[in-house]
């Protein structure tokens, strides 16, 4: 699951549009100054931008044409800013058709790194669900398929490995969120060949630093970080609090950027996937993956500062 | 879910308040101008409970079944399921409820007539809230008038009114027939509460009042409409 940040209400959107217009000139960081930092996928060495795009809640807009166009605008800004990985799941309601709509509208950008999930309790239903998902996206094949929340993971991993072997899939992964089933995830990570693992990590949820992140690094498994803003609750809680002075040293102009820098600076992390309904936020998120990143000491300061607040 | 106790209601929320509001607006726009017919049907149900006449009451109960089927198909299945996969299961529940209510309307004698004052008062209150107050309550606050939820078109007011009618029945029968609307009121209330919508209090309160009435209201002795009017 990804982290919807500031799901925009109509009132907030109107207020935000005015505020953005007024402050755009004062906040050059909203437009990425450079291509976002890329990280290698350990199993192949392929480079992937360290900030992706999640779709949890934010892209579940049903058949509402206006909202689908807004999602497409977010995707357009994402690709324009150098983004590649878009992550979704059958669990996310209508997010998959919304992604497919956006891709068709944008002329199927070559940069797309498609990350999807299989989420069904029956291993036998996995292949049919994946095919339905592929039709929603309207892509020839997925770059990455992950077993969502470890559901029927043994059977689904078998399906995904078979797909990878016959060239119908490039990478295989597994996901969890919000710190659940970590001991089981650790067992799988230690014993099963995987390309990707997806988990929750942010300055307040740091339990994965002890075992899972070092293990992923040791095993050569790429790490996708979901819920970087605790489903928006973290950035909302920090709203109104002044940024610490050291944020300027990192080129972070918002709490979201400081949090993302904290996450992607971890040596085991490959990509964070914040979700948003706002074009301004997607640019802001991508900008966090450029410029200086915090070292270990600075990361500790960021986490301590946010925990204190 | 081996760690089910770590889940919060917000973990199951799949959509934003804005998406939900626009979904209801689109549903209302597609069916306008028939919403006043829903209010009229609700008022007819209220009169049927008030008078307790056998024929009217049986027709009203069967009518509630038809409305449950319509609401389940038109909103839960055709609209809500697009953003909330759980609505697909709820549609099946509403279909089962529809069959049960129609069957009850055919089989029961004077189903909505009760000599129990508390049960009768609860029935009239819940139906009045569902039909008259709910459209207003649901369009207060951040919500638009275009997203007002009316009886016979949206599941919450329909479920609340159904609980009202069922409050007049014998306890076991009321609970059996009330299972689906009760479950929906609890689920919808939690969803609205998670969305930050104050109208969540209405379905949650209706469910609590229905259960409290069955628990405290004593037996519901079915009486004929003539006896009701002569009291």
> Largest interface, counted with CB-CB under 8 A?
A-B, 26 and 21 residues
Largest sheet of chain B: none
- Secondary-structure-based class of chain A equals alpha/beta
**Radius of gyration of chain A (Å):** 18 Å
Total domains of chain B:
1
Domain NADP-dependent oxidoreductase (chain A): 51-299
Keywords (chain A): Signal
Pfam families (chain A): Aldo_ket_red
Protein name (chain A): Oxidoreductase
Brief characterization of the structure:
Chain B: It holds the Pfam family DUF6064. Chain B: It comes from Methylopila turkensis. The complex is a heterodimer of chains A (309) and B (231). Chain A is built from twelve helices and twelve strands.
List keywords for this structure.
heterodimer, A: 309 residues, alpha/beta, TIM Barrel, eight-stranded parallel β-sheet, globular, B: 231 residues, mainly alpha, 9 helices, 68% helix
Structure description:
The complex is a heterodimer of chains A (309) and B (231). Chain A is α/β, with parallel strands linked by helices. Chain A has one domain: NADP-dependent oxidoreductase domain (TIM Barrel, Alpha-Beta Barrel), CATH 3.20.20.100. Chain A has twelve helices and twelve strands. In chain A, helix 2 (65-80) packs parallel to helix 11, helix 3 (95-105) packs parallel to helix 4 (126-137) and helix 6 (182-191) packs parallel to helix 7 (212-219). The radius of gyration of chain A is 18 Å and the shape is globular. Mean pLDDT of chain A is 90; it is low at 1-33. By secondary structure, chain B is mostly helical. Chain B has one domain (46-218). Chain B is built from nine helices and no strands. Residues 225-231 of chain B have low confidence and may be disordered. The A-B interface holds A 4, 7-11, 57-58, 60-64, 66-67, 91-94, 178-181, 184, 231, 277 and B 2-3, 6, 10-11, 13-19, 22-23, 26, 79, 82-85, 142.
